Amino acid sequence: MMRARLGDLNQGLALLAVGAAGALMAQEIGIPAGMIVGALLSSGLYRLAGGEPGLWRGRYGLVGQLLLGTCIGATFAPGQGDLGPDVLAPLKAALLPMVALIAVIVGVGLGLGWALGHFTALDASTALISSTPGGLPAMAAIAEETEADATVVAAVHFARLTTVLVTTPLLVPLLTTAPAGEVAAAPLAGIEAVGPWGTVVTLACGLVGGGLALWGGMPSGGLIGSLLAAGGANLLGAGLGPLDGAFRSAAMLLIGTAVGAQMSRESLQLLRQVALPVTVFIVVIVSVGLLLGWCLSQVTPLDLPTALLSSVPGGASTMTAVAHDLGGDTRLVAALHLMRQLVVFILVPAALSRQLRGKHRGPVALQGPVGKI
Asked: Is 183 part of a structural domain of the chain?
């Protein structure tokens, strides 16, 4: 037992060291959002080379979400200019366009899912869940609870998430008109971090909120629960945070490492069998997201980086982490992505239930020209 635990710990430390090395190298080179992108690429290569993450991939992802949610919630600190309750004003002003944006993104995803199921060997359930822009863990879980192939779903969503995470930091500075230095300046720069005791209390608040959300079975509970706990406490006058930037960097490192560690030769083999339609799906969904983001910036008070990062269908935790480095408002980016995910969590099971009502089929498998998985 002790030897197994030591082996698992060694695997976790090796994975973290690889992720940290990639993150620091990417930052040194000057890659946008280098902490999370570098960790993702290095940990992915580590997995492809045969490295084993053990149980630590999930642990790193969970801790990263808890930290990130707490860091975001801690920025809702009253008594610091525009960081008080009025920070919600842009969200309220943009609420109707954001609802329309979510409807379009989810609608496009469902339409692409129908096309994938109609023109490829993927069965309808697998195609639908693979194309709906929700979080990777949550969509894989939905697939396992239905008749869909969870392995294919996870592989497609990993490809989408990785593509978005690698390309978005390069595209946003090109699409914005602000000078590079201004684009990279985070909205919270210059705000003094809370002291040691306040840091402990803030982290404890986020941990409790995230833990309760996870215990209650909330999708993306670590991120949502910690964000709501710290942010809600601040809006009520608790005065928690903001936290030192090192905590946000640690969250980006852990999330990037966890995402990259999901890469495997098996997932690449699965993707290769449906490479062309999946590539078209990713290009379309990302392009639609960027176009909607530009439209959102034109009709709402949101700045262009925030609007673009709010609209591109990446993960809630990853896009929120990237927003900090690209000058977007992390609070608004997190709010819109969490709204989109909640809509997906409600809509997709209902759509699948209706589709499969009255039908009885065997285990889902990829069949036809691409073979059986």
From this structure: yes
Q: How far apart are alpha carbons 113 and 285 in whole angstroms?
A: 11
Side-chain-side CA neighbours of residue 57 (13 Å):
17
Integer Cα distance of 230 and 241 in angstroms? 9
Residues 3 and 54: their CA atoms lie apart, in Å, by 14
Secondary structure of residue 263 in the 3-state scheme:
coil
What is the pLDDT at residue 369? 34
Q: How far apart are CA 84 and CA 102, in angstroms?
A: 26
Quick check: is 211 in a domain? yes
Is residue 31 within 8 A of residue 37, CB to CB? The reply is yes
Q: Distance between alpha carbon 73 and the CA centroid of its chain, in Å?
A: 17
Question: Is 32 within the bounds of a domain?
Answer: no
Q: Is the preceding peptide bond at 90 cis, omega within 30 degrees of 0?
A: no
CA angle 162, 230, 97 (to 5 degrees): 60
Element (H, E) at 76: none
| CA distance to 13, 172, 311, per residue, from 49 (Å) | 16, 31, 34
- pLDDT attached to residue 209: 93
Q: Are 308 and 319 spatial neighbours (Cβ–Cβ below 8 Å)? A: no
pLDDT value at residue 169: 81
Rounded distance, CA 20 to CA 346, Å? 36
pLDDT in tens, 203-260: 999 999 999 988 987 766 787 888 889 888 887 878 777 888 889 889 888 888 887 8
What domain range includes position 156? 83-248+264-356
Q: CB of 172 within 8 A of CB of 183?
A: yes
Whole-model pTM over 0.70: no
| Torsion 54-57-60-66 (CA) sign | negative
Which tokens is 143 given?
């697939």
**Total domains present in the chain:** 1
Q: Is residue 308 part of a domain?
A: yes
The pair of structure tokens assigned to 61 is 């992802």
